[in-house]
Each structure stands twice: as C-alpha cells, then as structure tokens.
Amino acid sequence: MKTYFICFILMLCSVPVWAAKTCNLSLQNIRLENSGRNINYDMFETGSFALIQNHLIDLKNNSPDGMCDTVLLIKPRQNAFRGAQRSQQLEYQILAGRNSGAIYENGLAIVIRDLKPKEIRTVDYQLKFASQQYVSHGQYRNLFQYSAVEYPLNRTNIYDETKSEFQVQVNKTARVSLWGTNDRHQYQVDFGELETGETRQLTPQLLVQSTADYSIEFQSQNRGHLRHDSGDSQWDVDYGFFVNNRSVPLQTGRSLLSFRQPASAVGDRYSMMFRIGNVRNKPAGQYEDVITITVTPSLVH
Predict the structure, then answer these.
(1) Partner of 296 at 20 to 30 A CA spacing, among 35, 73, 163, 193?
(2) Phi first, then psi: what are they for 43, rounded to 5°?
(3) What is the dihedral of CA 79, 84, 86, 88, to 10 degrees?
(4) What is the C-alpha to C-alpha distance for residues 195 and 189, in angstroms, rounded to an integer?
C-alpha cells in the first residue's frame, strides 16, 4: 500500500505600504482687483465699506496624469495694513467668497478638490475695509503668505508656497461742513437791525475733517463789506470776521488760514463771529455779503 503525503507550503509575503500621493503643484500669478467704485481708501465713504479688494491666485497641477486635492492656506503677517507710523493702521475682514473655506488662524484655509492634470485654477478671496477708519494719508502695507498643503489639512506636507505684499493707498482728502445746524453747507446770518459795533457769535461751528494738514480759504463776495440792496458800493458797511477769535481779513476778497491735521476722525471745530462797523448815515434797506469757505489738504506733506 502506497502512502501519499500532501505538503502545504505557506509563504509569507510582505504587503507594500503605499505612501500618500505627492502632488506637483505650483502657486502663481498673484494679483488683486478692486470691487466697487473706489481704488483707494476713502474715509468719507458713506457705505459700510470704503474699499473692497478681490485677491486672486492661480494654482496649477503640473502633473501630466492624476488629479490632486489640496488646501490653500492664506496667512497675513498682521491683522491690519500698517502705515509708516506704527500707530496708524487700516483694519479689514478676510472672506473666502464662493470657495469652500474657513477662517484659519488670522487668515483662510480654502479647500481645492479634483485639480485635473495640467489644470490651472483661479482661487479668489476678499478683503473688506470698513468705512470711517481715521488714518493719515499714505501707503499701508501687509504681507501675505500662501501655502498649498496636503488635503485634508496637513501643514507638514507643503507642495508649494510663496509670499506677496499688498498696499492700500489713502489719499489726501478733506471736507468742511457746519456743525450744529440741519443744513451742513449753508447758513444765513440775520442781524436784524444793524447797530454800530454789534457782534454776533454764530451758533453753528465750522467743522473740518482731513487726512492731512490743511488750509481754509474764506472768500468774500463784497470784500469784507455788507452791500446795500441798491448795489451802490458807497453805502457799504464794513465788518470784522473772526475764527476762534482770530481775525480773518477779507478786504482783498479772500484770506487763507493753515492748520495741522486733526487728531481724530471727529475733526476740528472752529467758532465764528462777526463785528459790525459804522452804520451811521447809512440808508435803510437790506445789506448782505456772501462768504464762501473752502478746505484744501496740504500739498507739501
């Protein structure tokens, strides 16, 4: 009788462990577009935001085959754009827009899925600068760092990274208005019956807001005189005009005063006063003059 043996040979084979796919990505063509009517920051803008910037960056899959997923990290150096003076800054909000993203630290983490071979995809996000931030004129800067990292978020595996500096320009601008009255740009002074030496302190004050040093020009239609309604200059009544008790001569038709930049967004307020000259032997009737007030930011510095 023959005996047959069946032999089982077990072979142990090691199973290879495949590493996560490494994407060949590059970040390029960083740029911005301003959204809305303003290119520069205007502190007098009446809307919620004085400036909205659309930031764009292209992300390219350099691989000839295979799709890639990644997370684009956008990290500003600072939470505000800073000017030459360290205390001066423009604050902003950062938004992911239409992208699948979220606030990450003080920037953004934007998820990019299914990036095809050789595909270039443009990613956008927004910076919104709130209105009525008070700063001096000049340039305000911030540095942004961009990193394309492994998806899901893995900051240790970086495919590509780059940096770009952006600027916001604040122009020299100023405005003048009347504070303490419903009509902020026109006011009529009624002296009633004119009396020699009469003074009248105006209820409204002159309000000036400016991002720079500035000058105020006062122009008198009748060269510092109240003119009779006949139009005859021989009946003119002279008067003195004072701003913060400082005499403003108007005999040449105009006068210019210079001031430093206001300390805050509230601006500077100035009192105004008139003193009537000699009215003896003047005919009855209406007397009037028109003073036009213009504010201009300094062109020097």
Answers:
(1) 35
(2) -70, -15
(3) -70
(4) 15
